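Record 1 of the preview.
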Amino acid sequence: MIAICGTGMGSLAGMLKASGYQITGSDEHIYPPMSSVLQDQGIECRKGFSDKNIDSNVELVIIGNAVSKNNPEVQAVLARNIPYLSFPQALSQFFLSDKTPVVISGTHGKTTTSSLAAWVLETGGLNPGFMIGGFVKNFNRNYQLGKGPYFVVEGDEYDSAFFDKGPKFLHYRPYYGVLTSIEFDHGDIYKSLEQIQSAFLKFVRLIPPEGLLLASGEDSNIRKILRDLACRVETYGIGRGFQWCAEKVRPSKTKEGLKFDVYYQGNFFETFESPLMGQHNIRNSLAVIGLAHHLQISKPDIQKGLQSFKGVKRRQEIVGEIQNILIMDDFAHHPTAIRETLQAVKLRYPERRLWAIFEPRSATSRRNFFQKEFSRCFDIAEKVVISAPPGMEKIPLEERLDSTLLVKEISQGGPSAVLCQNAEEIVSRIVPEVRPGDLICVMSSGGFDGIHQKLLRALNPHP
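->
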């Protein structure tokens, strides 16, 4: 497996090993947690890429989308005519062919929705297989082989490999599908919103006539691709007008989440309670409730699954508390995701002063596609810190996000914002200003140089 340490590749390695295959792999950057996970499973991982890593007994090579055709191992595979697959092709061939795939797709919310779906199916006694792009706390991992008939997979719209530039989800044979949202993203491979809609249209057209698509009825970009589909389609949303509706959304008695009434095709279905914050998570829950109902999971089991869901690592995750100051970690990197995350946090912790610390790290967020949108998505926070985007030298000058302009525009009519060069500068800058009762929400699609632990150490008066 070339580039074995990616979240998906490393998990696939574990699944193949558990299925009885002998696995070796290599990667340029080998570090925890994935390096530890592979080591614990007895999977050999070689540092760096070399044609010597392609042993004479290799029968199949799985090539991650992080490497190009010029990779020395890829060159060795091509020269020796060894069979190879992309990550999604391998997942499909080895684990989806004899299961009923449940594929969760969308620009936002697919990791949380996939994780919740897997847990509700588990609670309902279906023991699903799953492969998800985040660490699911209820399972303490992000994959499971599963003995049941269903396999839940997070359907990513990003490309598959250098030899397959189509989206990963086109390989996943969806029978049941969920479509949470469509927005412009991944500006490095999609040139317009229309291109992304076209990719999702190909995905939903894969669902057979006897299959089912649950789609957000509130999303106008989704509504445009729902016409003339062969499969059954059910929409969901907050308020009336959809097959699955959530109404009377209110704080649960414990204040740890939300309570809401669900209606199906105009009739009262059941009342549910979820520990998840924010209206976007009500929508994610609705999709799972609809899916679970069609899989014949009982209402009490659906309720139990929703209530006992512990969430996903790096999704509104409290990573520490020092002197009544909460440090939260979140994966948000798109303007819509940032805005919804901050709104959800404010709804859950209205009395706390909210700090938003954002590192533009993804291929799209480092570009100027969302220059204007980023300037207003932080408005609900009281304090905003923008970290200088890393690796800007790889992006053409005319495409780069202007961080200095961004900070200026956030501060005009919004919260006060500052620009810092790195995690160390952010910590030294904000620690003197932070006070008890504050909540610091750190948003990045990467590790952000361990900023969470650096904040906790700096804030701890008794190290």
